[in-house]
Specification:
This protein is an all-alpha fold. It has one domain (7-53). The chain has two helices and no strands. It has helices at 7-26, 36-44. Helix 1 (7-26) packs antiparallel against helix 2 (36-44). The radius of gyration is 13 Å and the shape is elongated. The two termini are 19 Å apart. 15% of the residues are buried.
């Protein structure tokens, strides 16, 4: 797995994942567990949906 998530994408994924998780907790819904997906992809710096299309938000050096 090569890194394909840049710093801005990572920050957005963390914020969105936390918001989904907090909303799920607040409304006592299992849907809040979906917040784990963007958080996990941000932590490992890899998005499996980007890979088949060759998308990367990392800076090219």
């Amino acid at each position: 797995m090569r890194k394909n998530i840049g710093p801005w994408d990572k920050a957005i994924r963390l914020i969105v994942g936390l918001c989904i998780g907090i909303a799920g907790y607040y409304y006592q819904s299992w849907w809040g567990l979906l917040g784990v997906i963007p958080i996990l992809t941000a932590v490992i710096n890899f998005c499996p949906l980007y890979a088949p299309f060759g998308i990367t938000t990392c800076r090219r050096s």
